[in-house]
Amino acid sequence: MSELLPMPTALLDYESNDLKSCIAMMKGGSKTFFAASRLLPMRVRAAATALYAYCRVADDMVDQGGDVHANLAILRHRLDLIYAGTPADFVEDHALSLVVQQHNLPRLFLDALLEGFEWDALGRRYQTIEDLHAYAARVAGTVGAMMCWIMGSQSVATLARACELGVAMQMTNIARDVGEDARNGRIYLPLDWMQGAGLDALQWLDDPQATEIVKSQIGRLLDEADALYQRAEPGIAELPPDCRAAIFAASSIYGEIGRQLRREGLDSISRRTVVSTRRKLVLLAGAWTQVRWVYADPEQPDPLEAIRFLVDGCQSEMVGCANRKYFPNRTVSHRVERVLALLERLENEKLNPKPFKIP
């Protein structure tokens, strides 16, 4: 496998229509991901934007109703074309094709992601926390793996920590959305936990209320997420230096959702937890300095069982990537300037507020 080259011009050009469309998808979706991505170096930011756009479109397509299996067959065929270098005529497919070509991105990650979307569309429920880990590994651990891959750090341990960070973020999402999911007929809390607490999951779905038992289950899920955030943190120190602050910022903001939920009494049934823009700004700014205190752990734990297939499945490709190099293309002063510009823009938005949506 060849040494990493600069990103293709089409993907680097932020004035191109394709990438502008991908950026618009990100802005309209995950505000946390979009804000943290502004801290990424240009060599990674465009690829991350393309990945997000594809994931967003694929999720919407599977979740839109109709024949789930037919929609998935279409998406898998589109992946066939992307990996053949002949993408279908969709903005996100063209962008992802460039990422695949440039970074030799393992298809395993994207196939697993689509499988997770399928589980969602079919309304799968999860008996144990290990079953829930398996779901989170597919819909979020894969995203962590792909981000780690395009950054240029593909050791087994680093990839495992990136997957686990994705799983932690998904646990936070699930804890925050218990009420919204229930009203849509979905439940992600492990059924074993609910049964062990004397709660009939199906009965509760008919009339979801923020009982003390349910709150205790939400708190338990946040405990699980916190343990995974802590487990994943040393992996940030193994990323290329120009990428660490962005990932630390994303981890901090998602972790803050859980902390805010605790401060609100663990009620994610009658309300939706929101982290204020001001608090996000503080976390974004603090990431630059705090990430310097994150160190790699020489005694790395084995991968979480649920993400092992992602790590093991691409080890042969890791061997070919062992000597790939990354090329930081911005000085620290340039990156700080970008952060200040982001803060200024967000302050302006506070003076002229628009509807704000937490991812």
How would you characterize the overall build of this protein?
- Belongs to the phytoene/squalene synthase family.
- This protein is 67% helix and 0% strand.
- It is mostly helical and 359 residues long.
- It has one domain: Farnesyl Diphosphate Synthase, CATH 1.10.600.10.
- Residues 1-15, 325-340 and 355-359 have low confidence and may be disordered.
Shape: globular
Q: If you consult CATH, what is the topology?
A: Farnesyl Diphosphate Synthase
Number of domains as seen in the coordinates: 1
Query: What radius of gyration results from the CA coordinates?
Result: 20 Å
Structural class: mainly alpha
Number of strands: 0
Low-confidence stretches: 1-15, 325-340, 355-359
What is the strand content? under 5%
| Average predicted local confidence, pLDDT | 82
Number of helices, where a helix is a run of at least 4 consecutive DSSP H or I residues: 18
Could you estimate the helical fraction of the residues in percent? 55-70%
- The helix-strand sequence is HHHHHHHHHHHHHHHHHH
> How does the major sheet shape up?
none
What distance separates the N and C termini?
A: 36 Å
InterPro entries: Isoprenoid_synthase_dom_sf, Squ/phyt_synthse, Squalene/phytoene_synthase_CS, Trans_IPPS_bact-type, Trans_IPPS_HH
Keywords: Carotenoid biosynthesis, Transferase
EC number: 2.5.1.32
Pathway: Carotenoid biosynthesis; phytoene biosynthesis
